[in-house]
Amino acid sequence: MREQQRLRIITDQGVGISAVSRAGFRPVAFLLVHGLASNARLWDGVADHLASRGYRSVAVDQRSHGQSDKVDGPFDFATLADDLLSVTDRFFPPETAVVAAGQSLGGNVVLELASRHPSRIAAVACIDGGFITLSRAFPDWETAARELAPPSFDKVLYTELEMRLRKRYSDWPESGILGQLANFQVAPDGTARPHLKRDYHFRLLAEMWKHQPGEIAPSIQQPVLVIATAQTAAGRASKVKSVSRFANLLPRGRVIWLDAHHDLHAQYPRLTAGWLEELAREVSP
Predict the structure, then answer these.
(1) How far apart are CA 156 and CA 190, in angstroms?
(2) Which of 41, 13, 15, 75 is nearest to 202 (CA)?
(3) What is the mean pLDDT of residues 1-29?
């Protein structure tokens, strides 16, 4: 793993945001944003590859995730984008071309950030996210909440969880497995406890239900790269339709399909980093 530094800032709203930074010398840098119930460490593999190519990156733990402050909201997308703006302004000088890459929920958040603060974000990468519109995917909020409820980890030992994850992701690089494990902390009794509280999980889902990325997509003038998973599962056709609809609304959007896990950036970090570097070349001063 490349040399990294764990950093922390206090936003204008007084929330402590934790981030993992890697140094670089190029005029383009990356802001890396995780998805719902995830954490910054899922980006370790990608960030290491980018650092080897000379790119600086800052991967954040969004509020109430990972090592950031556990706050009782708000969780609306304007607030989440403001958190990212605080990170951007703190760690990237104004002359830096910042590529904001977000996975799943993070993809929707970086899209919101680019829309609200176009002068600070040079390009956007949506990793199996950005296009997520829960109100289109489910008939009502109750169905969405039921179908997307987080699994229970009551009485699951952390050591048992690690064995499960290593078996499930046996073909993943070590950075991806450690990133998945970093979604949890070890309770005093040795059980695994998700960093994101269950009620916060549902409150974030409710904000995703309200979010309409298609309404802001036409305003995004920056290049937008969408990397979407195309696993052969029920609903694949509807996903292709959803992604295509979203991409057609983007003035400068393009889509790459990959047969992969939802956390494709952790599963295929080198491949993901290569695509991100191509995007960086588009906006390099």
Answers:
(1) 9
(2) 75
(3) 94
